[in-house]
UniProtKB/TrEMBL annotation:
Keywords: Signal, Transport. GO terms for biological process: transmembrane transport. Belongs to the bacterial solute-binding protein 7 family. This is 2,3-diketo-L-gulonate-binding periplasmic protein YiaO. GO terms for cellular component: outer membrane-bounded periplasmic space.
Length: 361
């Protein structure tokens, strides 16, 4: 009996030693993994994850620019700050993700600027027909004092502006008839954004403007609820709108910038290092994205032509007619409380032209 008791005691002690050894190894491995994680991150900071929602298709240049931004943020922060991107209206329409970001239920959002006009009337000036006629003019204004004023103004609505992706110029497209001049557009039911300026544009051209949420436009064209819309070649192609369109008219009537914003309180609560990384990544992403957007727009136009869409480029006289018929929109909106005259003048001064240069006065 003594022998067996002694053996049991020895076995028990050996078992205890084994358990303690394994526990020590496990703790050592866990500590090692944690240390490696911190070494790889270059920081002991806890990983911060944010969500960004927007409505465009994942392969659109704006979406690709947003993904590039997220990639740069993760790279620059060594993985301590991660932005998860959600495209194709997964988290809601432009309006829904913007409102969610303002309320803080979503961290970041992207939207075309016409859908932001309810937060600041400064975007009304950006929407004025033909205020921008080429990308050089756009970039001078957006990157200059006019863009900085927008950034400051939107902070009052609870947003931190990160960057302005290049969305592109809107063209007139439809599935009813060739459109060469505004006369050919008269009576057509045209989908517009909620921008009061775009609605006024189509009213001036004699069409019937109908605001429709972006996610519903394809079906609206298919069912005849609307017969036309204004949008960029790349967005139209990437969302397969060529399947429900027959004609395009290249009039460049409106440049619609996109905008990426973060909830201001969420931004302010980031570490100063993360704040700097976010803004730096935004600057680098927009430079990369603009090159991509310009290449993609030219490519998408050719895809339209190859698909069989009739693309019409107005003559110089016809183009001037498109412009002159919407000068009344400037009369309506370039007034205090809408497109502030001083702000419009700032944009025109920045890009080096006057209202008289735009319209045939």
């Amino acid at each position: 009996m003594k022998y067996f008791r002694k053996s049991n005691i020895i076995a028990y002690l050996l078992l205890c030693v084994l358990v303690l050894t394994l526990a020590a190894c496990g703790a050592s491995d866990s500590s090692s993994e944690s240390s490696k994680g911190n070494e790889q991150n270059g920081s002991t900071e806890q990983t911060v994850k944010l969500r960004l929602g927007q409505s465009k298709s994942a392969n659109h240049p704006v979406s690709q620019g947003i993904d590039k931004f997220a990639e740069l943020v993760e790279e620059k922060s060594n993985g301590s700050l991660i932005i998860e991107t959600f495209h194709d209206a997964t988290l809601g329409s432009d309006r829904e993700v913007i409102e969610g970001t303002q309320q803080g239920t979503l961290d970041l959002a992207s939207s075309s600027t016409p859908n932001m006009s309810s937060f600041t009337n400064l975007f009304i000036a950006w929407d004025l027909p033909y205020i921008f006629e080429n990308k050089d003019e756009v970039y001078k204004a957006v990157d200059g004092p006019a863009g900085e004023i927008v950034r400051e103004e939107l902070e009052n609505s609870g947003f931190k502006v990160i960057f302005f992706p290049d969305y592109g110029f809107r063209q007139v497209v439809n599935n009813v008839r060739p459109v060469r001049t505004p006369d050919d557009l008269r009576g057509l039911k045209v989908r517009t954004t909620n921008s009061p300026v775009e609605i006024a544009d189509y009213t001036a051209w004699g069409a019937n403007p109908t605001p429709v949420a972006w996610a519903e436009v394809f079906t609206a064209l298919q069912q005849g609820t609307v017969e036309a819309e204004g949008n960029s070649y790349s967005l139209l192609w990437d969302t397969k709108h060529q399947e429900v369109l027959d004609y395009a008219t290249e009039v460049n009537y409106n440049y619609s910038s996109d905008i990426v914003v973060m909830n201001k309180d969420i931004f302010d609560n980031l570490s100063s290092e993360h704040q700097e990384i976010v803004m730096e990544a935004g600057q680098e992403a927009v430079s990369w994205q603009r090159d991509l957007a310009n290449e993609r727009e030219a490519e998408a136009k050719q895809q339209f032509i190859d698909y069989g869409i009739e693309v019409y480029e107005p003559t110089e006289e016809e183009y001037q007619q498109w412009k002159n018929e919407v000068e009344v929109v400037w009369d309506e909106f370039v007034v205090p409380g809408k497109a502030e005259p001083e702000y419009v003048d700032l944009i025109l001064e920045t890009i080096g032209k006057t209202r008289e240069d735009i319209f045939n006065n």
